[in-house]
Amino acid sequence: MTEAGPALPASVAATRSLKSRVVRAVLSLLVVGGIVMALAAFAYGRVAARASYDRLLLGAANEIAGAITISGGVPLVDLPTAAFQLLALAPDDRITYSVRSPGGQVITGQDTPLPETVRQAGGGFFDAEFTGLAAAERARFVTVPRRFAERDFSGTILVTVGQTLRARNAMALGLTRDALIVLGFAGVLLIVLGALVVESAMRPLVGLARDLAARDPYDLTPIDTPVPAEVAGMIGALNDFMLRLERQIASMRNLISDSAHQLRTPVAALRVQAELAAEETDPEIARATMVRIVRRSRSLGDLLDQMLSRALVIHRTAEARRVAVDLRDVALAVIETQDHALIAPGRDVALEIGAAPVLVLADDLSLTEAAKNLLANALRHGAGAVRMGAGIEDGAAVLWVRDAGPGPDAATLARIGARFERNAASRGRSAGLGLSIARAVAEAFGGRLALDPRPAGFRAALILPLSEEMP
């Protein structure tokens, strides 16, 4: 027997083992098969016993019929011992016989039953009650004719021999018992073999469970343990799950790292400025310091909003169900929230969308967060009027934000979108976090973030595959 597998966690609801299921199934089949086989064996035994003992009964009747002679016009019967020796093969059975004249009178023997149909047919087998015993008992009878056509006697003499059914029933039960014994041995063998086969088949799974239990908690590499083909699909699904989990953990680690990196400096600066304001005695200097504290607090609030937006996007892109989303609706929703009026009051912001739908298969909330970050990035780091729009370009869906500024230089453009990237226009705030959120959303839905300096201004765009539901 193999070793027991690792103990199951309390949260795992284990059902009956496969081994017990196979044993129960085999037992059920054996019970049903045993009943069917017993009935079949008993029926066959009765047929076989009837055929065997009918031949003995017929042989005894023929022996008696052959011993009949006619003397002086009178039938005489000299009972042969061979006839009763044949019937003695069933020692527990009772025997009766009769010899009847053509007129139906009993010449010798007992008054055995003789159905009219058998009499008219001139002989044959039949079943009837054996009445010569203390209690009536079923018996098997045979009647054979012996025809005479002599000068002083002419007619048919009927010889009837009967025997009870004890030996026949014993033979049928014996055949049934033998069949059930064979079935019992075969059943035990099948149960043992079934248990061994299941145990052998489960051995790779027990090894797999042991390997998983021994793994480092942070080891999310794919499982490469050889398993049967029937389990390969489950292992593939488990590997996919661990890959998604690893991505989620990596994203959360990046989020924590981002938070620590992004918040450390602003919080420290805010604390220092608050301490200076508390110690300052000059009202004008204290007022200027408080203004800087307010400005720094607003900047820190914007940063926290972006961090929360990133956390939301990490969760939504991994868990939310993909549905058909019209990018025009996303752009319209972002403009209608009027967040730009708080970020850059008085700035010229407009929407440019067409009449044709721009459908993608994605999550509406994640796309909205990405679009908000693109717009906020353009308002904070761009210049001039800002335009947001959606359309179809080169067979792809595009959600874009464009400002009138020249955009960053080539070196900065190559790095922008990475975490913590700052440019000269950012006034100390990270320009990379908002774009990294947009890039993460685009890549989660099979697209990309495109940063493109154009004659009309710098454009940042989410380029996504069109949905198959496009009309």
TrEMBL record:
Catalyses which reaction(s): ATP + protein L-histidine = ADP + protein N-phospho-L-histidine
Domain of life: Bacteria
Start and end residues of each Histidine kinase domain: 258-468
One term of GO molecular function: phosphorelay sensor kinase activity
Main localisation: membrane
Keyword set, alphabetical order: Kinase, Membrane, Phosphoprotein, Transferase, Transmembrane, Transmembrane helix, Two-component regulatory system
Documented EC number(s): 2.7.13.3
Subcellular localization, as worded in the UniProt entry: Membrane
Entry's Gene Ontology cellular component terms: plasma membrane
Domain HAMP: 199-250
Residue ranges crossing the lipid bilayer per the database entry: 25-44, 179-198
Pfam families according to UniProt: 2CSK_N, HATPase_c, HisKA
Name of the protein this chain belongs to: histidine kinase
